[in-house]
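Many introductory courses stop at the sequence. We go one step further.
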Amino acid sequence: MATENNEGRQSSAPDISKITTFIVAERLGPFELAQRWADRTSWPLDRTANDELAELACMSALVCWLRRWQPMAIHRAILAGARLEAIPAAFGNSLGEAFHRWYPWASRQRGLIIAGKSAMSAEEYETVAGIFASAGVRLPDEERADG
């Protein structure tokens, strides 16, 4: 069914107002969610409660996906040679917060075995952990998984 969008044009995009729960929205995947949320012309001009719920579900699911990927982006930026002071600027929070987002993810990657191989080598982990440590960012000894 075609609907009128914010610019008065007809849109053949799926009726996103039908997706009003986080669970259903999350199943769309991050790229579909980002595309839907960014396409302001697909959202109705005269919004109903369902339209508002649909946007909330879309935003919430997208946030969840992006938070999952943030540690990987931090990791890759550091390995790519990003200056340490650039990490908080890109992350939008302190270097300590970036570390606390990265550390649990990196620890899980070290323990994840795929086809008999660790998802993250000890060398890769130690490289990034060492760069954080060079800035004085590390877990207190009692919180360290490795002792």
